[in-house]
Design goal:
Residues 132-143 have a biased composition (Polar residues). Residues 130-150 are annotated as: Disordered. The protein is an alpha/beta fold. It has one domain (2-269). Helix content is 14%, strand content 31%. It contains 3 helices and 18 strands. Strands 1, 2, 4, 7, 10, 13, 14, 17 and 18 form a 9-stranded mixed β-sheet that branches. A 5-stranded parallel β-sheet has the order 3-5-8-11-15, with no helix packed on it. β1, α1 (9-18) and β2 form a beta-alpha-beta unit. It starts with a strand and ends with a strand.
């Protein structure tokens, strides 16, 4: 569904559920904020707000026999409240003909992107990425080996010395607009990636237009190297910034999640 706005998101999804639409649901909403309760249920769920704030206060259910996929994105910020549940777990273990576990079909995926706004995971928010939950744990063929295989990606914007994405030093200052200071409940994640995103639209214009007559930008190795240098400066500053790793990210940078947690620079190229 693509729409400028959606009058009653909950009522629409209640009707889809009543009609048995559980394969995939995708919503792109151009304007306005949205709060999601308990109305979304499908094995693959995509919700994006082009110019709004997204809040999850209930359960988004992508669970089933197979693991699910949940992707949420909002231009002005994304919040999981303390009552939010993102459930992508699968009950049936996917194995080959020898009973060996196949990684890919057992990998639940949750991706959260907050655009130019803050990404918040409140204490108590739950994300379930487990697989094969109905299969006994063990070492024999066809049994669940107990290893985590899910992927959680958290994409939040870099901010500068005054706390804004528009700051001149946002790309290198070493801070992110994110709040995971309280501990969420994350199950089944092999990797928890916090990607500090920076958007670039400054690639140089080619001296001659394309065959169509339209100008275009040149993204060459020198341009990419300059962004890599900025990302290196950013990550070094971020790792040294106690207010980030021990403050904003304290809910992930701890003994419970440390083996899965990764803080990384990311870039978005706009051309």
């Amino acid at each position: 569904v693509r729409a400028q706005s959606l009058g009653d998101f909950a009522a629409l999804n209640v009707r889809l559920t009543a009609g048995g639409v559980f394969g995939a649901r995708s919503f792109q909403i151009k304007q306005g904020d949205l709060t999601i309760g308990n109305e979304l249920k499908a094995s693959e769920i995509n919700v994006s707000l082009d110019n709004g704030l997204l809040t999850v206060a209930g359960t988004i259910d992508a669970s089933g026999e197979r693991v699910g996929t949940i992707r949420l994105a909002a231009k002005r910020g994304l919040t999981l409240t303390g009552t939010a549940v993102l459930d992508a777990h699968g009950t049936v273990l996917r194995v080959d003909s020898y009973g060996k576990i196949i990684d890919s079909p057992n990998r639940a995926i949750v991706e959260l992107s907050s655009g130019d706004g803050r990404l918040t995971l409140a204490q108590g928010a739950r994300i379930d990425l487990r697989h094969g939950t109905n299969t006994p744990i063990g070492t024999s063929a066809g049994q669940n080996d107990g290893r985590a295989r899910g992927t959680l990606d958290l994409n939040a914007p870099r901010i500068g010395s005054t706390g804004k994405t528009t700051d001149a030093d946002a790309a290198t200052y070493g801070d992110i607009d994110i709040d995971v200071s309280g501990m969420p409940n994350i199950q089944g994640a092999r990797t928890i990636n916090v990607n500090a995103m920076q958007s670039y639209d400054d690639a140089p214009t080619a001296p001659a237009p394309a065959a169509s007559g339209r100008p275009y930008q040149v993204i060459d190795q020198a341009w990419l190297d300059s962004k890599h240098t900025a990302s290196t400066t950013f990550i070094n500053a971020a790792l040294a910034r106690g207010s980030l790793t021990a403050g904003k990210l304290a809910g992930l940078n701890n003994a419970t999640y440390r083996d899965a947690f990764h803080l990384r620079p990311g870039i978005e190229v706009v051309s």
